[in-house]
């Protein structure tokens, strides 16, 4: 019922164009205020958390448009990328929620708007002010690259400002990870915004993701201090020719040190283009007043992985997928097929849970075969057919999630075992819960 209500909410909001507060509450947690922007298959709203009164941005993604457009992998990758990034100058992803028709990204709200508007308002920035933002941009880019993430669409439109005027890198929809690198050591997908794209992308022979990000950083820095883009033309062919040849002119007011840094950033040869480490040694980068304190990298939000006891730890993102890693495919699965998986939350110790499962299996004449270090087990019937899997996930220090997946072959037998033996046991475990679960889940 709540899913239907939330889908109705999204439909109603899509028709509102007056920017006024809607007063509609999403998932009983976020009051949606106004529409901030519209993309190809997503809308972004300003919202307020009812629990904390904190402003957030809610990105509503249409499942049908994603599936029909073949963008499922892009959305999954965007989620997996944002969950591995935790930096003061990168928009934080707080939560991902889903209904039958929508996926909602709940993100940090940057109340200062786009850096593009700041440049448009002032015409161009003084070098000290540009340095303030550029240092934050490079710090964020360095963090991305250290986590194996390449943004591939850095531009003024994707650089936001918070209420304190600090920069926030956003929109990782076109980002790539090291796993996408081909055996030649390069990425090959042609993407990006034409006026910011690196010349090596245009030749379609493969490119280094870190190098193209730094080229885009050069375009951003040029635009901040010049007030216009270094490469621009109404004719796309002429534009790409200028980029490929590196044809641009410095305005007369640029300092010599800034020109030198820009010439190294906008070097058409990626082999000789400046690196992040070299930028940190650059004269212009380190000049001026101390306008910017070094960014402190936030504690990583990615807490998945095996614990010392062998029981997997979960974070908020794994609650969505209950996957072994970055698989977010359950966000796009048919909700009508979810009856083959059941889960409960318990305060019982993980090892105690598995012992009770084994006891129930013995009574039901089901064979339990432990896997790994004890965090999961296969359930087999007397005929040797797989009935299902039981996995115990560590949710917090006090709580675990117990999951059972029934196999197709042993579905009938597994369902009977679940109904008569395991489900009553797990309900008993759920009643032992001694602490609240995020989202107040009792049965997931």
Automatic annotation (TrEMBL):
Zinc as UniProt keyword: no
SUPFAM superfamilies: Protein kinase-like (PK-like) (SSF56112)
Tagged with keyword Secreted: no
Protein kinase domain location: 30-285
Cofactor(s) this protein cannot do without: Mn(2+)
Assigned keywords, A-Z: ATP-binding, Kinase, Nucleotide-binding, Serine/threonine-protein kinase, Transferase
Gene Ontology cellular-component annotations: cytoplasm; nucleus
InterPro entries documented for this protein: Kinase-like_dom_sf (IPR011009), NAF/FISL_domain (IPR018451), NAF_dom (IPR004041), Prot_kinase_dom (IPR000719), Protein_kinase_ATP_BS (IPR017441), Ser/Thr_kinase_AS (IPR008271)
Enzyme class per UniProt: transferase
GO process terms (BP): response to abscisic acid; response to cold; response to glucose; response to heat; response to oxidative stress; response to salt stress; response to water deprivation; signal transduction
Catalytic activity reported: L-seryl-[protein] + ATP = O-phospho-L-seryl-[protein] + ADP + H(+); L-threonyl-[protein] + ATP = O-phospho-L-threonyl-[protein] + ADP + H(+)
Domain NAF: 309-333
This enzyme's EC code(s): 2.7.11.1
GO molecular function: ATP binding; kinase binding; protein serine/threonine kinase activity
Residues involved in ATP binding: 59
Annotated PANTHER family: CALCIUM/CALMODULIN-DEPENDENT PROTEIN KINASE KINASE-RELATED, CBL-INTERACTING SERINE_THREONINE-PROTEIN KINASE 14
Biological role stated in the UniProt entry: CIPK serine-threonine protein kinases interact with CBL proteins. Binding of a CBL protein to the regulatory NAF domain of CIPK protein lead to the activation of the kinase in a calcium-dependent manner.
Family: Belongs to the protein kinase superfamily. CAMK Ser/Thr protein kinase family. SNF1 subfamily.
Name this polypeptide is given: non-specific serine/threonine protein kinase
Organism listed in the record: Sphenostylis stenocarpa
């Amino acid at each position: 019922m709540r899913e239907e209500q939330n889908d109705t909410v999204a439909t109603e909001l899509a028709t509102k164009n007056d920017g006024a507060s809607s007063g509609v509450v999403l998932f009983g947690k976020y009051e949606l205020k106004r529409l901030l922007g519209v993309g190809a298959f997503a809308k972004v709203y300003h919202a307020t958390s009812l629990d904390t009164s904190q402003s957030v941005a809610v990105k509503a993604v249409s499942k049908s448009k994603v599936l029909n457009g073949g963008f499922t992998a892009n959305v999954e990758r965007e989620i997996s990328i944002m969950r591995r990034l935790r930096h003061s100058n990168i928009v934080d992803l707080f939560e991902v929620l889903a209904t039958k028709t929508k996926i909602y990204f709940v993100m940090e709200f940057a109340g200062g708007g786009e850096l593009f508007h700041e440049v448009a308002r002032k015409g161009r920035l003084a070098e000290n002010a540009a340095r303030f933002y550029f240092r934050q941009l490079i710090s964020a880019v360095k963090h991305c690259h250290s986590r194996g993430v390449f943004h591939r669409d850095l531009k003024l439109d994707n650089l936001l400002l918070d209420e304190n005027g600090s920069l926030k890198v956003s929109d990782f929809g076109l980002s790539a990870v090291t796993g996408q690198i081909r055996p030649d050591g390069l990425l090959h997908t042609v993407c990006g915004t034409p006026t910011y794209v690196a010349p090596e992308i245009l030749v379609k022979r493969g490119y280094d993701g870190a190098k193209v990000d730094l080229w885009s950083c050069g375009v951003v820095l040029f635009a901040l201090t010049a007030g216009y883009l270094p490469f621009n033309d109404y004719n796309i062919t002429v534009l790409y020719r200028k980029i490929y040849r590196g044809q641009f002119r410095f305005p007369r007011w640029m300092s010599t040190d800034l020109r030198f840094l820009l010439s190294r950033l906008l070097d058409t040869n990626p082999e000789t283009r400046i690196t992040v480490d070299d930028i940190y040694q650059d004269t212009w980068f380190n000049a001026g007043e101390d306008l910017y304190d070094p960014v402190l990298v936030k504690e990583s939000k990615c807490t998945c992985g095996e614990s010392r006891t062998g029981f997997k730890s979960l974070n908020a993102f794994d609650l969505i997928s209950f996957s072994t890693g970055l698989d977010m495919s359950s966000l796009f699965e048919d909700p009508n097929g979810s009856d083959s998986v059941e889960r409960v939350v318990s305060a019982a110790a993980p090892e105690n849970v598995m012992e009770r499962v084994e006891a129930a299996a013995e009574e039901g004449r089901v064979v339990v075969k432990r896997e790994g270090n004890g965090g999961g087990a296969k359930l087999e019937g007397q005929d040797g057919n797989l009935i299902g899997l039981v996995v115990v996930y560590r949710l917090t220090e006090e709580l675990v999630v117990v999951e059972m997946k029934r196999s197709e072959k042993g579905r009938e037998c597994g369902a009977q075992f679940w109904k008569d033996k395991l489900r009553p046991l797990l309900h008993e475990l759920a009643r032992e819960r001694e602490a609240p679960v995020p989202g107040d889940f009792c049965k997931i």
